[in-house]
Amino acid sequence: MTLMTSLEHVVTAAQHAEIVENNETVMICCGRMGPMCLPVYDAMDELKEEYPNIKFMDMLFDSPEAHVIRNAAECAGFMGLPFTMYYKNGKVVKATSSIQSKEQIKEILDGSLS
Amino acid sequence: MESNNIFDVIILGAGAAGLTAGIYLSRAKTRTLILNEGMVGGQIVLTHEVANYPGVENISGYQLATTMKKQALSFGCEIKQNIKISKLDLSGKIKTVFVGEEKYTAKAVIVATGGRSRELNAEGEDTFKGRGISYCATCDGDFYTGMDIIVVGGGNSALEEAVALTTYAKTVTIVHQFDHFQAFEHAIETAKNNDKIRFILSSKIENFKGEEKLQKVVIKNLEDGTKNEMLIDGVFILIGYQPNSEKFKEHVTINKYGEIPTDLKMTTNLPGVFAAGDIREKQIRQIATAVSDGAIAAINAIEYIQK
């Protein structure tokens, strides 16, 4: 089960662990094909070229495998889609809930992931 | 300036009005650029299902916007999305729009920047966005299964979404600033007949409180000034939209609601500057009326630049 976006998809929890482990900086947006999520995927798609060192991926929120993000400690209290995770050197450095603009995402990429 | 930055018409905004104008202008072989500060589609993409757009049965807002975008591109319209407009000069015969340091010019401009969800601007609202405060019932409703929630608003969206949210929530309290609703009668009746819904009228939320997530709100009675704390799991703010007109204040006439008045040709007070869609002073805001505005603005922009 994957989202219908042009981003690369995380499908399994094992793949999630491998990607986070093997890439220095990773952004994963976990959501649905809904109005709060689509703008985030779109912004990520546009940012791919500008940030070639960051791995941009998405994951279907309703997949059972997405428990790795849904149940992450950093997402405690999150009540709005999408849940977006930013990883650096294998660790979560930032997590956001609900829609984010391209500018807000860039601010995190230039800060927490730089 | 690069010659490929010179256009006949620049459209600001890529919602239903802007994309329609783009389709009409490009099809008429008019060199057209659409500049959009967010994602293409505007508020259409915030609609899960569009059921009342003539000729199209049950389409998602995202699909409808994507189709409009494809149509515009197929006729040669250029679209730049997720950009930031830094400066405007709309007064002369040649209109100038800056995106960062990049300069674009055109003989006419169509302002179709639409609106955005209105926020309450209450204390704590920013802190609890996505942590108990939501602006999209269909997106986040299932997070509140078996919980007590508030819907703020008194229009059709608020009442219809309040009813929809009873599928998940244990109780839904509608908080509205007036003693009556603006929604259609059938929406009011449906909400009133729902056992899970209760009402707090002539009141507003003044403060959102909590730690990791929203836990309570302070509600002020606007008639007697009294304030009460209420324990709550979530608040959906559905109080309509506000026009994205701040950038144009110094350039065109804007009414007290932030809308741009136009005549029947969609012309503003400035020659060569048109307005279309939700940004415009108008009675009905629907995809169908935005599309109509976009077509009218485009046709009149063509007439203007050919003079």
What does this protein look like?
The complex is a heterodimer of chains A (114) and B (307). Chain A has four helices and five strands. In chain A, strand 2 (25-31), helix 2 and strand 3 (54-60) form a beta-alpha-beta unit. Chain A has helices at residues 13-22, 38-50, 67-70, 102-111, and strands at residues 8-9, 25-31, 54-60, 83-88, 91-97. Chain A has one domain (8-111): Glutaredoxin (3-Layer(aba) Sandwich), CATH 3.40.30. The N and C termini of chain A lie far apart (31 Å). Chain A is of the alpha/beta class. A five-stranded mixed beta sheet of chain A has the order 1-3-2-4-5, covered by helices on one side. In chain B, helix 2 links the parallel strand 2 and strand 3 (78-80). In chain B, helix 4 (156-165) packs parallel to helix 5. The relative contact order of chain B is 0.18. Chain B has two domains: 3-117 and 241-306, FAD/NAD(P)-binding domain (3-Layer(bba) Sandwich), CATH 3.50.50.60; 133-237, 3-Layer(bba) Sandwich (FAD/NAD(P)-binding domain), CATH 3.50.50. Chain B is of the alpha/beta class and 307 residues long. Chain B has six helices and 17 strands.
